[in-house]
Amino acid sequence: MVRIAILASGSGSNAQRLVEHFKGHASASVVLIGCDQPRAGVIQRAWDLGVPLYLFNGARLRSGDVLRELQGQRVDLIILAGFLRLIPIDLVQAYPQRIINIHPALLPKYGGKGMYGHHVHEAVIAAKETESGITIHYVNERFDEGAHIAQFKCPVLPEDTPDSLAARIHGLEHAHFPEIVERQVALLADGL
Q: Which of the ends of the chain has fewer CB neighbours closer than 10 A, N or C?
């Protein structure tokens, strides 16, 4: 059984989709949701879904406390679902090719520190892009620079606002993120 931890900083809609996708799954289960924001919506979702919650701050992430918690929970795969902090090198090295992020743009465009949520959608619209989308990628020690696993595209319409584009991007995330994580689970399960 592949043990999955999800790290999130926001509302947690992608975290909820993943928990629901893997509920009763034969090969994987979400065993922990970690959050670095004490008022994030993902906290309530974790409670509602019955998934143990681990609340931490940046200092605990950098000190290795989070890594020790993940190892103590025997986590095999880490999914970043709207997690806004840089993953420390010791955590990346402990989970090589086993930390996956979702980004609301077609990387390498519109990635890096500070490029999340509405910041991304505003930049895409300001640049008059005709398409946007999502990138699912492995995590390395730099923001949004890990090897790509998959990208999915959608049009940017002339009348789009950051909110309307965000809604289309969320649709892509909810449709494709669980299936891509499922594929990674299958690859990992073969090696366990």
A: C
